[in-house]
Amino acid sequence: MDGGAAASAFDHAMWDLAAQAAELPLARLLGSCDVAVPLYANVNRGLPSREPQAFALAVRAAVDAGFDAVKIAPFDEIDVHGRWGAPLPVTKQGMALGLARIEAAREALGPAIDLMVDCHWRFDQKSAHSMVDAVAAYRLGWLECPVPEDAAWLPLIADLRKRANHHGMRLAGGEDGVGCAAFEPFLAANTYDVLMPDIKYVGGIAEMQEVARRAQAKGVAIAPHNPSGPIAHAVSAHVCTVLPGFDRLELQFEESTLFDTLLDPPLPQPSRGQQHLPAAPGLGVRLHVGMQGGEGMQRLSWGRIAGATH
Q1: Which tens digits make up the pLDDT trace of 271-289?
Q2: What is the pTM of this model?
C-alpha cells in the first residue's frame, strides 16, 4: 500500500491547492453543495481494556455523543492466519470472548442503534461460517472482513455474503485496495454489500470516485475506511459528498487528543453523527508545526506538506 499512500498524499495536496486557488472548499470544487456527511464511530482503539464492559461503555459514550452507528472489533483471541502476530487458532473460549463483547455492546446500545463488527481477516472457512451464524443474534448492520481477501478466498467471501444476507446482515470489506482496478475482483465475484476504499491508499480522489461509480453499478454501497488522522479525515469528508452510493464515513472515536490538537483550528466537532465540513477554501484545515529556535508554532497549509497524510 505504500505506493498508493504516496500517490494519494500527492493527489490530496494538489486538490487542496487547486481549491484554495479557486477560493472554494474542496467539496464545492468537486461539485457538491453538501455541508456535512453522516459518520459512524469506531470505538475499538480507544478502549481502556478489552473487557466486555469496556466495549459497552465505549459504544454508549458514542451514542451519548450523537452517533447512531458504532463499530467494534471483538475477536482478539482469534487470528488463524497470523496476520497480527503468531497464529491463534479458533477456540471455544476465543469465540465466547468475542461474542461476549458483541453482546455487551448490543445490550448497551439497545435495538435502534446500528452495530457493526470488524473481524480483521481472522477466520478460516469453517470458523467463518459458524461465526456468521453466531453473530446473527445481535442484529448487526454489517460484518466486516471475516477472511483474507486474496483471489483464492473470493468464492468463500461471496458465500459468506449470502449467509450474512440470509441473517439480515450486510458483508463489508476491501479497505486495502490501491487503484480502482483492485476492487474489480470483489465486484465481479459479488463478494460484498459494502466496499470500503481508504482515501489514504486508493491512489487519489478520482480513483475513489471511480470505485464508487463501479460499485453503484453493481448495487454495492461505499463506506470509506477511515480510522485515520484529521487530515485524511478531512479529505474523506469532502470526497464523500460526491461519492455515488455513499453510506457512512468511519471516524475514530475518543482515540487520541492529537486528533483535535494537531489542527488549528480543529475540524468542526461531529454533531448528531454528522461531520460538518470546514468552510475555508481547500481542505479548510491547517496543521500545527513546531518550529526550532523559540519561533513557537507556525501554521502551514496541508497543501505544502503532502507527506503527512500517513
Answers
A1: 999 999 999 999 999 887 7
A2: 0.91
Give residue 81's domain range. 34-259
C-alpha cell at position 131: 461465526
Cell numbers representing residue 286 in the block: 491547517
Pick the closest to residue 247 from 221, 281, 280, 273 (CA basis).
Answer: 221
User: How far apart, in whole angstroms, are the C-alpha atoms of residue 229 and residue 9?
Assistant: 13
- Asked whether the predicted pLDDT for residue 304 surpasses 60, the reply is no
**Residue 23 counted as domain residue:** no
CATH code for the domain in which residue 156 is found: 3.20.20.120
Strand partners, 276: 36
For residues 148 and 153, give the distance between their C-alpha atoms in angstroms, rounded to a whole number.
Answer: 6
Number of helices (H), then strands (E), in the chain: 10, 11
pLDDT tens-digit readout, 63-115:
999 999 999 999 999 999 999 999 999 999 999 999 999 999 999 999 999 99
Scanning the structure block, which residue is given the C-alpha cell 452495530?
Answer: 115
Written as one string, the DSSP assignment of 190-253 is: T--SEE--BTTTSSSHHHHHHHHHHHHHTT-EE--B----HHHHHHHHHHHTT-TTB--EEEE-
Could you give the C-alpha distances from 258 to 209, 222, 277, 287, in angstroms and in order? 29, 27, 19, 11
What is the count of structural domains for the chain? 1
